[in-house]
């Protein structure tokens, strides 16, 4: 009763299988994660809910748990909902052996949104790096002198400014840019 009360309160899916991989318990979170009532999961093989591309990983992980008692920690799998759509999950699991009944217990969390955010963040990072490379190429390819400054203090400049002024790139960084102008032009 305590176990049932705990599993009914969590948004993670908690499930039990027997030693053959047949689901013997599915928490109410099955409705949300798998879009399948828990009672329709019971009696089915857990592989019915694993995306084909992850079958061999799932079978291997299940075998490790059942043979060696390996604990599964933060494994990522693509699982299927009742309608065939998929989601990415993080799975933790272990073997149980109670009153000569052996099987697995798993905790499954949908991490699709997190994975999508990671992909978008990586894409944004790659775009920023590409933009920086383009800027640097344009910056250095210019024949004119270009400087980026803060209140006159040169933070960065291109080789064109160095060639025009006779100062090295290193000498220009940190220099007051007004010093590059003729004295009568500074005002």
H and E string? HEEHHHEEEHEEHH
| Radius of gyration based on Cα positions | 30 Å
Strand content: 25-35%
Tell me, rounded to a whole number, the average pLDDT.
91
What is the general shape? rod-shaped
Kindly, what is the distance between the CA atoms of the first and last residues, rounded to a whole number of angstroms?
84 Å
Tally of helical segments? 7
Give the total of beta strands: 7
Strand order of the largest sheet: 2-1-5-4-3
Structural class label: alpha+beta
User: Helical proportion?
Assistant: 25-40%
* Low-pLDDT ranges: none
Largest sheet: 5 strands, antiparallel
At a glance:
With 187 residues, the chain is α+β, with helices and mostly antiparallel strands. The protein contains 7 helices and 7 strands.
Descriptive overview:
19% of the residues are buried. With 187 residues, the chain is an alpha+beta fold. The chain is rod-shaped and about 95 Å long. It has a five-stranded antiparallel beta sheet, sandwiched between helices. It has helices at 2-9, 30-33, 38-41, 55-68, 112-141, 159-165, 169-172; strands at 13-18, 23-26, 72-80, 86-98, 101-110, 147-150, 153-157.
Chain-wise SSE layout:
Elements: H1 2-9, E1 13-18, E2 23-26, H2 30-33, H3 38-41, H4 55-68, E3 72-80, E4 86-98, E5 101-110, H5 112-141, E6 147-150, E7 153-157, H6 159-165, H7 169-172
Antiparallel strand pairs: 1-2, 1-5, 3-4, 4-5, 6-7
List keywords for this structure.
rod-shaped, two-stranded antiparallel sheet, 7 helices, 187 residues, single chain, alpha+beta, 38% helix, 7 strands, five-stranded antiparallel sheet
């Amino acid at each position: 009763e305590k176990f049932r009360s705990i599993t009914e309160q969590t948004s993670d899916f908690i499930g039990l299988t027997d030693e053959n991989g047949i689901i013997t318990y599915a928490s109410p979170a099955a409705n949300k994660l798998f879009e399948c009532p828990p009672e329709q999961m019971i009696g089915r093989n857990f592989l019915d809910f694993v995306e084909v591309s992850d079958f061999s990983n799932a079978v291997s992980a299940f075998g490790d748990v059942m043979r060696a008692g390996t604990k599964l920690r933060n494994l990522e799998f693509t699982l299927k909902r009742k309608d065939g759509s998929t989601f990415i999950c993080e799975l933790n699991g272990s073997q149980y052996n109670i009153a000569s009944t052996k099987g697995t217990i798993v905790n499954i969390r949908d991490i699709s949104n997190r994975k999508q955010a990671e992909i978008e963040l990586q894409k944004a990072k790659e775009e920023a790096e590409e933009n920086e490379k383009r800027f640097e190429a344009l910056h250095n390819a210019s024949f004119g002198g270009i400087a980026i400054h803060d209140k006159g203090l040169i933070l960065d400049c291109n080789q064109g400014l160095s060639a025009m002024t006779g100062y090295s790139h290193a000498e220009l960084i940190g220099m007051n840019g007004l010093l590059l102008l003729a004295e009568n032009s500074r005002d």
